[in-house]
Amino acid sequence: MWATAGVVAFALAWETWVRLRDVKPFVLIPPSRIASELADHPRFWVEQTWATAWHTVVGVSFALLSAMVVGAALAAFRPLEWAAQPVLVLVMVTPWVAYITSVVLWLGAGTPTILFMVAFVTFPPFAFAAVLGMRSADVAARELLRSVDASRPEVFWRLRLPSALPSLFTAARFATGLGLAAAYFAEGGSSSTAGGLGEVGKRVTLNATGGYEILWGSIVCAALLGVVLLVAVTTLERRLLSWHASQRLVIG
Amino acid sequence: MTDLPPGIALEHVSKRFGAVAALDPVDLTVAAGEVVTVLGPSGCGKTTLLRLVGGLERPSTGVVTIDGGTPEAARTHKRIGFVPQSPALLPWRTVAANARLLQDVNRGANPAALPDVDALLDQVGLAEFAGAHPHELSGGMQQRVALVRAVALGAPYLLMDEPFAALDEITRADMRHLLADLCEPLNTAVLFVTHSLAEAVYLSDRVAVLSSRPGRIVDVVDVPLPRPRTAELEDDPAFFAIETELRHLLHQGAGR
């Protein structure tokens, strides 16, 4: 209710400001024009959004899975973690925008580059979360499992992985936004034909002959997609982490 | 190795952590089906002693044997039910699933007939909480789940590391009564570590009193009270007499 009111107020303020101040269309166009563009070509926008969603979800999922494997290894052997940490930090802090051209040259323009970029930039936060979470497994519970000689895989599945879920979900919320940005940017990579909102936006910018509705359409669709992904992650988190303190409402 | 009688035996077992002597050489036995309590002040090395028996630490000197074998072998064959100081329940598992946790791992070593977890939960008054999660339980209830989890192994030995230390006095009393009810019919050998005199007397066949750090055994006291132990026993003069004797020994061990 209040959330809707907030969004409506924001759109109204935007619309009024653009109209009253006569803002140039290459700076900003009013939301009503974006809305009518989206309404006029719903099929096109759904298709492009779907392509970006697919790139983001597949890339992020791949990062998550590989981070769990790597995280388990790092959590199990401390020297390995010490060795890997600087590399992970480097990957995390290096502006990926800067080296994407090299990736395009390496993998070629298209889906592989996009998926690689999404997975590559979202991998470090997942890896850190996995190591942290797996190491946070209750010491007493670990000893308890040792007291009956539980195997390493058993300790992983029954203790370490569930212990890592809360921090993995925190990372996932951060990573969906990051992955979406990487997907949008990589889709816009030169001569990509993989489709997606990023490619649509890039085409308009190259034309430089207007079509601002389309650029802003891609931005709004990307934003909506981001919201949907975040809601999906949060819903999954609620379900899987119902036992965790962060998901419990204070009653009474 | 097989010439030893069944049970736990510590021969001249000591433990140092770096420069710190945690435990002076200790000799102690727990026969099959016997309940032995190690009583001592905080930090006297009694938890270390228990961990040595459970194979979670290695002794600096001496030998620990369980049925003539090593503690590691006993662990591998799931012959030890461990009850840690904190309940260490897994928050994502229900009460019933937590109670089954130790049955669920290293399944190959489970005995042919596993105790019925549902019946055990019923026995400790948690049947209606079987589907609840640990955060919905009180501290005493959580520790009851931890007891069931250990007993559910059907192991011949239980090692208990001050399991009731964090509970209030009333709950502690309930818990020791419940523990006696739970273990007496099973004929399980128990090595129990505590700093509570009442727990030591109520539960044990024998009590080994440990001195302050580095722990050494001041004396081993027999508790000739009849079994099954009942709550009324705690008002018996004989109960007080043993408690008093143990208290003197504790003071003696602390003031050397």
SSE pattern of chain B: EEEHEHEHHHHEHEHEEH
Shape of chain B: globular
Instruction: Determine the number of helices of chain A (DSSP H or I, runs of at least 4 residues).
Output: 10
Q: Compute the gyration radius of chain B: what is it?
A: 18 Å
Account of the protein in words:
The complex is a heterodimer of chains A (252) and B (256). By secondary structure, chain A is mostly helical. Chain A has ten helices and no strands. The longest helix of chain A is centred in the last third of the chain and has 36 residues. Chain A is elongated. The two termini of chain A are 24 Å apart. In chain A, 37% of the residues are buried. With 256 residues, chain B is of the alpha/beta class. In chain B, α6 packs parallel to α7 and α8 packs across α9. The longest helix of chain B has 18 residues. The termini of chain B are far apart. The chains are: A mainly alpha (252), B alpha/beta (256). At the A-B interface, α7 and α8 of A face α4 of B.
Can you tag this structure with a few keywords?
heterodimer; A: mainly alpha; B: 256 residues; alpha/beta; 9 helices; 9 strands; 32% helix
Summarize the structure.
Chain A has helices at about 1-20, 30-40, 40-75, 80-95, 95-105, 110-135, 140-145, 150-185, 195-205, 210-240.
What's the topology here?
The complex is a heterodimer of chains A (252) and B (256).
Chain A: H1 2-21, H2 31-40, H3 42-76, H4 78-93, H5 96-107, H6 111-135, H7 139-146, H8 152-187, H9 197-207, H10 212-240
Helix pairs in contact in A: 2-10, 3-4, 3-6, 3-8, 3-10, 4-6, 5-6, 6-8, 8-9, 8-10, 9-10
Chain B: E1 7-17, E2 20-31, E3 35-39, H1 46-53, E4 61-66, H2 71-76, E5 80-83, H3 95-99, H4 101-104, H5 117-123, H6 139-151, E6 157-161, H7 169-183, E7 189-194, H8 197-203, E8 206-210, E9 217-222, H9 237-254
Parallel strand pairs in B: 3-7, 3-8, 5-6, 6-7
Antiparallel strand pairs in B: 1-2, 1-4, 8-9
Helix pairs in contact in B: 6-7, 7-8, 8-9
